[in-house]
Design a protein that fits this description.
It is a single chain. With 313 residues, the chain is of the alpha/beta class. 28% of the residues lie in helices and 28% in strands. Helix 4 crosses helix 5.
């Protein structure tokens, strides 16, 4: 099979197309013939030698990626949920070695769910890691309740645009940070208020916030403390809650934590239901071919991608 292998950490030129053996199946795994994959910032960070690289570098060949949508080619001896020929999608083996940049992927059956009819493989692949992150942060980690004020940073991005839609479905008041050119877009996906981080001081505008989702880190995480009411929650998905943030949060009686998304077929089933009912919609700004995956990485690296980047296999 064809696969994209990371030869060494560094630039996108280190992603090489190679022929590899199809993966062997464990008893609880399904073999998926991949139709589309999604590229996420964690892919790029890992490629550069950060994020998951250090835990994966001993596993060679190193094949990046976690988001897939495709067709079940074969099933392991103890697989109960799926059968050959079904269409599935989800985020596989995260955190771990997902090996999604390939024509065939072996995935635990507990990590995937059935793809809804009427949803393309491109749309399904786009609605995996990013949507799963938004769902787990809002539903599990933050445990948001009605009438809460939610602030979502980078609200036009991959995780952000799903989080806006999901928070509105939960009946929350949603503010989102993004550049001025994304103001109309945020309104279209349901945000109640757009904050232009390039011109406005977030902490002066967003006040008495109950929950903040932070996909940026650094100064943004620190400034977010000023936006929260006492007892509010700050959740960073990029490890932004460090010692200084923790100390400041404690002084203000704020719950601050880092969160790392985890593969979950049960959560993916919920997301599939939202997709099927059109309650959420993935916004796909760029689609690349499998042989042009380096360009997909370069697009993510601009830091200005609206919605998702998908690669067709």
């Amino acid at each position: 099979m064809k696969a994209i292998v990371l030869k060494e950490p560094g630039g996108s030129e280190n992603l090489a197309l190679e022929n590899l053996k199809k993966p062997d199946l464990k008893e609880n795994e399904i073999l998926v013939r991949v139709h589309a994959i999604s590229i996420n910032p964690v892919d790029v960070k890992t490629r550069n030698g950060g994020a998951m690289y250090h835990q994966l570098k001993s596993e060679q060949p190193l094949v990046l990626g976690w988001d897939i949508s495709g067709e079940v080619e074969a099933i392991g001896s103890k697989v109960k949920k799926f059968k050959k020929g079904q269409l599935v999608f989800g985020m596989t083996n995260f955190p771990g070695h997902g090996k999604a940049y390939a024509e065939y992927v072996a995935a635990p059956e507990e990590h995937l769910t059935l793809k809804p009819e009427g949803i393309t493989h491109t749309q399904a692949a786009a609605t995996s890691l990013a949507a799963l992150t938004a769902w787990q942060v809002l539903y599990h980690e933050a445990q948001v309740t009605t009438k809460q004020n939610i602030l979502i940073h980078a609200a036009a991005g991959g995780v952000g645009h799903f989080a806006v839609q999901m928070a509105k479905l939960m009946g929350r008041t949603v503010s989102g940070t993004a550049s001025y050119k994304n103001a109309t877009f945020l309104k279209e996906i349901g945000a109640d208020r757009h904050i232009d981080y390039t011109k406005e001081q977030i902490e002066d505008i967003a006040t008495d916030i109950d929950v903040i989702l932070d996909p940026i880190g650094g100064d943004t995480t620190l400034k977010s403390i000023e936006c929260l009411r006492p007892g509010g929650k700050l959740i960073s998905i990029v490890g932004g809650v460090k010692e200084e943030v923790m100390a400041k949060a404690k002084d203000k009686n704020i719950q601050a934590s880092n969160y790392l998304v985890k593969s979950s077929g049960n959560d993916m089933k919920k997301i599939a239901e939202l997709l099927d009912s059109r309650a959420i919609k993935p916004i796909i700004s760029h689609v690349f071919s499998f042989t042009d995956i380096a360009s997909a990485h370069q697009q993510i690296e601009t830091g200005k991608t609206r919605g998702k980047v998908v690669v067709v296999v």
